[in-house]
Specification:
alpha/beta; globular; Rossmann fold
């Protein structure tokens, strides 16, 4: 699918299998979400601009690359995206954080906003939206809508697992936003859950079910 990158690195795929296993503990699930997010962050930041600066090594003066421009913003969709944000911050600790509070109405499956807080200059930064599951796509679309309304033009969306219908919906609504995922499953069930999926990522991360 154009605009969708599946990160098929063996380590990512192995860790995703641990998440799929219904017998994985809450602690294991939470830690592996964080680990996969760090690996995905490596991929999604591959094209960050760099500039050369002068540094003094123990041996001599050198010209070496450093990341250019303003710091990244990581934007987790609450609450399930929090563990993913922590994994990204492990790799890019200087990044700023925006919080997007959305929940899915159990009847309509539409996203309902309850909180949004971003840095004042978020429009001038690259923003990486993180949410473990891209199921119907409604939540991802709503999150991207909010950030675009705030003036953001440089957006990325990263998830652990996408459904094909959800990925197609996001790409149709926001064709300018590239998507990264560890895998894509073919379908959704009647409740809007990814099949075969890995269950409710929020509940499994925080042990609430």
């Amino acid at each position: 699918m154009q605009g969708l990158t599946i990160v098929d690195h063996p380590l990512v795929q192995h860790k995703l299998t641990l998440l799929r296993d219904r017998n994985s503990s809450t602690n294991l699930f939470r830690s592996v979400v964080r680990e996969i997010a760090t690996l995905l962050c490596y991929e999604v930041t591959r094209d960050l601009p760099t500039e050369f600066i002068g540094v003094e090594t123990p041996i001599a003066t050198a010209r070496a690359p450093t990341i250019a421009g303003k710091k990244l913003v990581v934007a987790p969709v609450l609450r399930a995206g929090l563990a993913m944000a922590e994994g990204m911050l492990d790799l890019v600790p200087s990044a700023r954080v925006a919080h997007i509070g959305l929940y899915r109405d159990p009847i309509t499956l539409q996203a309902v906003e309850y909180y949004f807080k971003a840095p004042e200059d978020v429009a001038d930064r690259r923003v990486i939206v993180v949410d473990p599951m891209l199921a119907t796509g409604h939540t991802a679309i709503a999150a991207l809508d909010l950030l675009k309304e705030a003036g953001v033009t440089d957006l990325r969306f990263v998830c652990l697992l996408a459904s094909r219908p959800g990925a197609e919906a996001v790409r149709a609504a926001h064709p300018d936003v590239p998507v990264w995922a560890a895998a894509m499953d073919p379908e959704l069930n009647d409740h809007g859950y990814i099949v075969p999926g890995l269950g409710d990522a929020g509940d499994r991360t925080f042990g609430t079910r």
